């Protein structure tokens, strides 16, 4: 019998509930037809990639010689592509980033794994706000960190700054901020971020070492109301490590276009960048697809037709509220976090299956009592699903 | 001052000699023109990708709907693509692999990182044969392993089985076999592998736990002499974990098409596969580019025009031997491991620069006294470089 390391074995064997649910949805689709299963379990963008991008892909393949196009790039990514990203950020936010502050990654997942591995020293604490993307725990624990969870307030899914103040200790190394968030679709206001930043700066001074905000923002382009503003965290807090992915906004999630930004304002910037790059080396992330590195600059000023998500959100928000459901206000992303009428999310998701509604229990995101509904589906699917939600609610009356 | 974890910082800051050399070559090309610099430092295939593959890429983009083509795949890769790889291996080697034994990775680097992280328990020993690909040490040490080095015999760059017997201890977990090898281009004979397997099976019985051969074979398709046979290690030793990449044989290294194979013959197969998959999850390797997953089945029975490498090898082998150089016999890959005439590889590579010859010292590969020459360049470049090698040798006479 071999001795295998703890976390790889644990996380490889773990019954992944989201995967079990996806498998059920696929099986059910085989039994009664995909059109009769209302599968709200998957966060895969359904809106096609912009034609400008698919055209650009063809053009790149036709104009760049294959030997150059498909060759190895530097591990951090092609310098001119990194410069294009830096220039884009600078024009949006008035920052002063250069290609050397950026590292092109295999989606936001690659960026997150690098950040966790490059920053966590054995025993460091990582603060996450529930509900949270479950992989944060996988990365944090596997690299020797301890996860400390703070529940978002149920009334508005914002953070109570005092809860953060109480949770920070001498061992706090990272605070993960995912806004717009998966699974709640909530956006942390500038006021909230400023309050957090004040608390963390105080703690940094008290303990004499940096505390990093790890800003994970793959849903940044998906904000639905004009009056909701999305602060750019690196401008409000110096020690911010920033992770981004183009997967959601241009509907190319399988092509793994993301980046990690270490702003020059980060303390010991060169060491921190080096540690993150070293982590990338250790993780085997030699470079992302060079073809899609070439495509990346074309993604900077274009998105898929995100209006479809807005339509879906509005339809669900209005109709489900009218049906008597309560939910977190979905300001962004393409998720709706629906309250289980009797507070039991596992039973709620089970019962929903009787009406062919597939959702993911909030328990998966460290926030029991709610269920995640991904509305990156055809609007028509939502229209047809609404009576099923009505029937589901009836069973609770 | 922040406390950063040891290995990410070390491996991120490390003066990477190969990178320094590449930077020198680029600088020199700017000064005197690229055609006047004989850059033998880079292992980037220069032969174009087969037209069949670039055609297939166009066809995939035109026929598979974008939303499907670019969507997330399962973490292990699309099942039908994994099945195609399994079927190909089965037809080549008479094996019984299934899609569930395979995991599509971001090149061989992704596969290696997963294997090291998924297998190494703190304190385990990893045996490598020098000269060796330097990233083995990065992966092994970072995940808590200790690297034990065995020097290949200088006369034939094979392993002395008795040296392996002496190096194996109760803590040995992995033996890395890279054949054809980077940087020596040598191939371990079936006889050598059989002798190794016997020694390792004995050790497994003695110590009561598996010892894995980690077979890293990205150069498998690059073998130059018909009489040289390349054993398929999983057929000779049950506890073999197999890493492959299509980068070199189809000249698409930037597109990161690789896989990890855990044959069903591996002890505790399910646990080992789970630990490796869990490692992939921890490393943030969610999936490889889905476009290139679609292309992968087209790569199974085609290679670039490898005859160019054969021409290059023959030309170098004959001429440099006639000039008085000694070298490891390059049976495969596209590297030639050249002996420094006076045994000082660092000085040899420095002096070579006077003749615009750029090579990588064997010291980088744990084997001082030699220099690596990558011959994945235009044959014409080699022809023009040969007089420079003659002049370099003259300085040693």
What does this structure look like?
Two copies of one chain form a homodimer. With 397 residues, chain A is of the alpha/beta class. Chain A contains 15 helices and twelve strands. A seven-stranded mixed sheet of chain A has the order 2-8-7-6-5-3-4, sandwiched between helices. In chain A, strands 9-12-11 form a three-stranded antiparallel sheet. In chain A, strands 1-10 form a two-stranded parallel ribbon. In chain A, strand 3, helix 7 (135-142) and strand 4 form a beta-alpha-beta unit. In chain A, helix 6 crosses helix 11 and helix 13 packs parallel to helix 15. The relative contact order of chain A is 0.17. The interface between A and B is large, with 85 and 85 residues.
Name the quaternary structure: homodimer
Number of DSSP helices of chain A? 15
Biggest interchain interface, per-side counts: A-B, 85 and 85 residues
* Biggest sheet statistics of chain A: 7 strands, mixed
- Point out poorly predicted stretches of chain A: none
- Counting DSSP E segments of at least 2 residues, the number of strands of chain A comes to 12
| Helicity range of chain A | 40-55%
- The N- and C-terminal alpha carbons of chain A lie at a distance of 54 Å
Shape of chain A: globular
């Amino acid at each position: 019998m071999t001795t295998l390391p703890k976390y790889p074995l644990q996380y490889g064997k773990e019954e992944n509930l989201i995967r079990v649910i996806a498998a059920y949805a696929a099986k059910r689709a085989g039994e009664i037809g995909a059109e009769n299963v209302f599968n709200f379990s998957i966060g895969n963008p359904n809106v096609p990639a912009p034609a400008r991008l698919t055209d650009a892909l063809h053009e790149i393949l036709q104009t760049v010689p294959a030997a150059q196009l498909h060759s190895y790039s530097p591990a951090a990514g092609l310098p001119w592509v990194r410069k294009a990203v830096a220039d884009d950020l600078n024009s949006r936010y008035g920052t002063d980033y250069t290609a050397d502050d950026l590292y092109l990654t295999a989606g936001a997942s690659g960026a997150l794994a690098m950040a966790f591995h490059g920053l966590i020293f054995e025993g460091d604490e990582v603060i996450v706000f529930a509900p949270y993307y479950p992989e944060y725990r996988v990365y944090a624990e596997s690299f020797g960190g301890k996860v400390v969870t703070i529940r978002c307030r149920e009334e508005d899914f914002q953070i109570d700054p005092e809860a953060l103040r109480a949770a920070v200790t001498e061992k706090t190394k990272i605070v993960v901020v995912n806004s717009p968030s998966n699974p709640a679709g909530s956006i942390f206001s500038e006021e909230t971020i400023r309050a957090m930043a004040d608390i963390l700066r105080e703690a940094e001074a008290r303990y004499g070492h940096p505390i990093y905000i790890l800003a994970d923002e793959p849903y940044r382009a998906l904000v639905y109301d004009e009056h909701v503003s999305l602060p750019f965290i690196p401008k409000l807090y110096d020690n911010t490590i920033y992770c981004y992915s183009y997967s959601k906004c241009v509907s190319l999630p399988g092509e793994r276009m993301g980046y990690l930004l270490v702003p020059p304002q980060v303390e010991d910037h060169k060491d921190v960048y080096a540690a993150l790059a070293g982590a990338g080396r250790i993780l085997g992330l030699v470079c992302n697809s060079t073809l899609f590195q070439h495509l990346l600059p074309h993604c900077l000023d274009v998105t898929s037709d995100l209006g479809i998500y807005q339509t879906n959100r509005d339809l669900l928000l209005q109709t489900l509220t009218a049906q008597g459901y309560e939910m977190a206000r979905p300001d962004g992303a393409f998720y709706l976090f629906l309250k289980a009428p009797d507070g039991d999310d596992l039973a709620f998701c089970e019962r929903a299956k009787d009406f062919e509604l597939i959702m993911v229990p909030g328990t998966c995101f460290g926030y029991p009592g709610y269920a995640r509904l991904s509305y990156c589906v055809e609007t028509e699917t939502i229209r047809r699903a609404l009576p099923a939600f009505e029937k589901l609610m009836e069973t609770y009356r």
